[in-house]
């Protein structure tokens, strides 16, 4: 565990020094890491975004593996939290149904009304479905893996483009090879940064079309002897193509415009702040070796606790509804032990306006790090 105690060097009496693996490192000293920065940089909500246009290289295993062991030893009750939450299936059906009804109601609306409703309601509902797809990806709804996959297909219907099953594949790689450049599909390619990462316009284009960026990026990553192609992927295409055809017959062009805009905005199109979670989760905004950031605030009410991201990576078998309980139990490891975000709007603003905040502002490790 990383603790804090009063410095014993030239620091003021109010300053603290990090303790890692039993060793104390005074503020301002050279830290025992290849990046030359402390493992963490303070605790609590983000105040200043101190970024650099380069990877922070680490040669350690995932912090999440270490923290999970520490928390489990100190608070063994966390291992008894449920591993499935069946009511999530109800929310899948409710959100899919609500988007379908909204599309029908908007079939004769003006384009401006459609944009407004898609931005406020549609994107929020579509993003919430992505969060539920995330839980279904980890088999956190049903005991049966097949039932989780089936409801994943249902949750993916309003997104129009069949992406749920491929997300399942690449997201599991993300957990297994977190921040390994360039193996973790969440780590941007160097070409992304070279082409788009050094201007407001370039970053805005990248952000708005992130759904396309991540699809193209996945083609450049090794599959670790696995392939996303499967029978479930075939069903994903059949389900979404059939759904799109039937919905078009029912709601017409304007209704489908609402569905498409809602899907795109949920991942950042038109600079929708919900897309900022892709930045908030793993970009190195403190120039420290903290490789994952949680977000606490309203987003967790609207997005099934998706902001509890450190908690999720630490305990991947805990459904969304129990993540706040995990934080409450082990608070000194999370809100009192790490930096965290409180606003996706703030993340997006800092990302676009800081020259040193680019796609290379990441903590990364070389592939195949061993224990």
Helical content stands at 40-55%
What value does the average pLDDT take? 88
The structural class is: mainly alpha
Low-confidence stretches: 1-38
The largest beta-sheet arranges its strands as 1-2-3
Main pleated-sheet profile? 3 strands, antiparallel
Q: H/E order of the elements?
A: EEEEEHHHHHHHHHHEHHHEHE
Question: How large, in whole angstroms, is the Cα Rg?
Answer: 21 Å
What percent of residues are in strands?
Answer: 5-15%
Count of beta strands: 8
Task: Report what the structure shows.
With 371 residues, this protein is mainly alpha-helical. It is globular and about 55 Å long. Among the domains are: 1-32, no CATH class; 87-187 and 222-273, no CATH class. It is 47% helix and 6% strand. One of its GO terms (cellular component) is membrane. Keywords: Membrane, Transmembrane, Transmembrane helix.
Task: Fill in the keyword field for this structure.
mainly alpha, 14 helices, Sphingolipid_d4-desaturase_N, three-stranded antiparallel sheet, disordered N terminus, three-stranded parallel sheet, globular, about 45% helix, about 375 residues, about 5% strand
What's a concise summary of this model?
By secondary structure, this protein is mainly alpha-helical. Helices cover 47% and strands 6% of the residues.
